[in-house]
Amino acid sequence: MLRDKNLIPLSHQHQHALALCVRISRSSPIAESDLDAWHREIAQLFQGEIDAHFAAEEQIVFPAALQFDELVMLIQELMSDHTELRSLFGQGETLSPYMIGTLARLLSEHIRKEERQLFERLQQLMTPEELALLGSRLEAALKDAQQTCLIPTDATRLRPAQ
Q1: Phi and psi of 33, rounded to 5°?
Q2: Rounded Cα–Cα distance for residues 144 and 66 (Å)
Q3: Which of 22, 38, 61, 99 is the most exposed place for a label (fewest CB within 10 A)?
Q4: Calpha distance 68→10 (Å, rounded)
Q5: Residue 74: which of 36, 113, 32 has the closest Cα?
Q6: By the 8 A CB rule, do 66 and 72 touch?
Q7: Which domains does the chain have, with CATH numbers?
Q8: How far is residue 31's CA from residue 42's CA, in Å, rounded to a whole number?
Q9: Do residues 79 and 50 lie in contact, with contact meaning Cβ atoms separated by under 8 Å?
Q10: How confident is the model at residue 1 (pLDDT cuts 50, 70, 90)?
């Protein structure tokens, strides 16, 4: 199903985060000499985009989804994911190469749940008017969030698949 235009800002941010996850996966195991560059990039993405993204979902999308009984358990799971991911992002410069890989795996799985389960069902269950209201509220909530992909450094650039 095509993504409804009102959810596209979140989907664009998902693409940015997934790009980071792919680069982490292809760089694993991360060399100790590259850890500082990865820590900086992960912190920059969290501060510039993911933190505001999580807040917008928690304050706008999740409450809208909770009006549908079938989505309650999924929303509880997604909230739990946010808690776990915030904890990992909060470890900052102490993230080991292994934990950076874990962060990328969990973030990727979380994004795929939102895209494939939550957004798909919201598009089916909500009226066009409800989606439009959701979209205008998201636009206001995300107005100060970074809207561009990060430029990787030499240490964090995409590596060929092995």
Answers
A1: -65, -20
A2: 26
A3: 99
A4: 20
A5: 113
A6: yes
A7: 8-142 (1.20.120.520)
A8: 16
A9: no
A10: confident
